[in-house]
Design a protein that fits this description.
Elements lengths: L1 H9 L5 E10 L5 E12 L3 E3 L1 H10 L3 H17 L6 E6 L9 H12 L6 E6 L8 H13 L2 E7 L5 H7 L4 E4 L2 H4 L5 H16 L3 E4 L5 H9 L4 E2 L8 E2 L3 H6 L3
Parallel strand pairs: 2-4, 4-5, 5-6, 6-7, 7-8, 8-9
Antiparallel strand pairs: 1-2, 1-9, 1-10, 2-3
The structure holds guanosine-5'-monophosphate (2 copies), manganese (II) ion and sodium ion.
Manganese (II) ion (MN) binds next to loops.
Length: 250
């Protein structure tokens, strides 16, 4: 309960922060996107991981407020970066159900001055609602604004392939569990190659996440992934370090 009660006030008390993790083009080595990752420093409990407080926010019905906060913070930060890399914001599927998201996004882009083409929204596949007309219509509205939609944690949901058919995502981010043991798993190697092939055929980009070793990086490259993210390439960075990270180029 301390988590749930504390979370209700976390925004006002300024306890939430965004960190950013660069995503690199595997062909050029350039940063193409930075993913915003929420951090919460509770005064007594210390750092509470998102895997704990995001589900808590969903339970107590404030996930939409958290998403709006993250969206505004991320767009504000990105508008000040010294290059035109994109910023990716995680959107909990629970925030898709009210139908307000497109309007909120438009208002936030106007307010922060960030061009729509510099925003990506990541939607976690494993929590996706079943084939839902409202959801697919809203996702299309979001794309019409000019931003990109990323299907996050791909391969962990109940019907991964049918999401590709029902919704028009721009990018597939393959779940890091497929990269974890890639070096000695013929199965995982076959899966990431197949996903890469499907994505190319459907005109989608691919991101490999959870790249921690040179070997994993090589497998992602050889499978033809467009970009990669992971501790090997760059861990999540506090917001005030991003200008430096981006100025360093790569
Ligand atoms: O950064 P970390 O590995 O601790 O993040 C754990 C999980 O929390 C990830 O699945 C990530 O998608 C999720 N997460 C991080 N920040 C946000 C956020 O701002 N909104 C939502 N909905 N999820 C987030
Ligand atoms: O939104 P998503 O679930 O994809 O969030 C990515 C999460 O993965 C973040 O919590 C981030 O801190 C974490 N992460 C980033 N790079 C790595 C990595 O190389 N290995 C592992 N295990 N986790 C990572
Ligand atoms: Mn993500
Ligand atoms: Na993910």
């Amino acid at each position: 309960h301390e988590v749930e009660n504390g979370l209700r006030q976390a925004i006002e008390k300024g306890e939430l922060a965004l960190h950013f993790q660069p995503i690199f083009d595997l062909a050029t080595g350039n940063i193409v996107t930075c993913e915003a990752l929420m951090r919460w420093e509770h005064p007594r409990l210390g750092r509470v991981p998102p895997s704990e407080f995001i589900p808590a926010a969903e339970r107590i019905g404030i996930i939409e407020q958290l998403s709006i906060w993250a969206l505004r913070e991320a767009c504000t930060a990105a508008a000040e970066w010294p290059s035109d890399v994109r910023v990716a914001v995680n959107i909990s599927p629970a925030s898709l159900t009210s139908g307000e998201l497109p309007r909120t996004v438009i208002a936030t882009l106007l307010e922060t001055g960030l061009p729509a083409r510099r925003l990506e929204l990541e939607v976690t596949e494993s929590l996706f609602l079943e084939d839902n007309r409202h959801t697919s219509q809203m996702l299309r509205e979001l794309q019409l604004i000019g931003l990109k939609l990323v299907l996050d944690d791909f391969g962990t949901g109940y019907s991964s392939l049918s999401y590709l058919r029902s919704y028009s995502f721009d990018t597939i981010k393959v779940d890091q569990s497929f990269m974890a043991a890639i070096g000695n798993s013929r199965e995982d190697q076959a899966i990431i190659q197949a996903v890469s092939h499907i994505a190319k055929t459907l005109d989608m980009e691919t991101v490999a996440e959870g790249i921690e070793t040179e070997d994993q990086l090589r497998h992602a490259r050889e499978a033809g992934f467009n970009s990669g993210q992971g501790f090997l390439l760059c861990p999540p960075q506090p917001r005030d370090r991003m200008s430096e990270v981006l100025a360093a180029g790569t």
